[in-house]
């Protein structure tokens, strides 16, 4: 009985092939496209995670393929705007006095920045933060005793909140 052995040879190629793109032979292609060289993958502290390198190389290959075919890469492709951005754009288009709204926004940012600086300066003083904390605790206790402990006081507080809400919003 004769024994036969067969060998299987697999050759690797460094050519990137897009399976979705139509294939053209080199003779029928009127122009040559040279692909840029790939940068080396980022140096990792531990080489125990080969899938990160593989994912990085796939991302680079996808970008190179996109550049070769003239498409925009997936990261650069224009996506649809979120709903909140559309809402803000529509609201901005409805504003009649854009200068006043812009001025108020800038003034608000400046006031926020200034108040943050003032609070951080007060916080650096040695005794002031502790004293202010005690004042806050004392006022919170007084407010709770005055308005929340007894039922008639709670009802009066709720009524006052409703009246203030109607004054601000207006009766409809």
Tags for this entry?
172 residues; mainly alpha; 5 helices
Task: Summarize this entry quickly.
It is built from five helices and no strands.
- Taking all Cα atoms into account, the compactness measure Rg is 34 Å
Low-confidence stretches: 8-14
Question: What structural category arises from helix and sheet content?
Answer: mainly alpha
Overall pLDDT:
76
Helix content class: 55-70%
How many angstroms separate the termini? 102 Å
Strand portion: under 5%
Number of helical runs?
Answer: 5
> How many DSSP E strands?
0
Shape: elongated
Major sheet characteristics: none
Oligomer: single chain
Secondary-structure element order, as H and E?
Answer: HHHHH
Subcellular location: Membrane
InterPro entries: CAAD_dom, CURT1
Biased composition (Polar residues): 25-34
Region (Disordered): 1-49
Write up what this structure looks like.
It is a multi-pass membrane protein. It comes from Quercus lobata (Valley oak). The chain has helices at 50-69, 83-94, 98-123, 128-147, 151-169. The model is unreliable at 8-14 (pLDDT under 50). With 172 residues, the protein is mainly α. Among the domains are: 78-124; 131-171. The chain is built from 5 helices and no strands.
């Amino acid at each position: 009985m004769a024994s036969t052995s067969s060998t299987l040879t697999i050759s690797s190629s460094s050519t990137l092939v897009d399976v979705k793109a139509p294939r053209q032979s080199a003779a029928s292609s009127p122009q040559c496209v040279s692909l840029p060289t790939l940068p080396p993958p980022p140096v990792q502290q531990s080489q125990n995670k080969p899938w990160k390198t593989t994912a990085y190389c796939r991302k680079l290959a996808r970008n190179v393929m996109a550049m070769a075919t003239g498409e925009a890469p997936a990261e650069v492709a224009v996506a649809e705007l979120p709903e909140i951005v559309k809402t803000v754009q529509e609201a901005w288009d409805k504003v009649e006095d854009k200068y006043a709204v812009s001025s108020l926004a800038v003034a608000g940012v400046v006031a926020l920045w200034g108040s943050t600086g003032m609070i951080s300066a007060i916080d650096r003083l040695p005794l002031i933060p502790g004293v202010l904390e005690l004042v806050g605790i004392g006022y919170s206790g007084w407010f709770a005793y005055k308005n929340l402990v007894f039922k008639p006081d709670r009802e009066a507080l709720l009524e006052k909140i409703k009246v203030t809400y109607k004054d601000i919003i207006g009766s409809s």
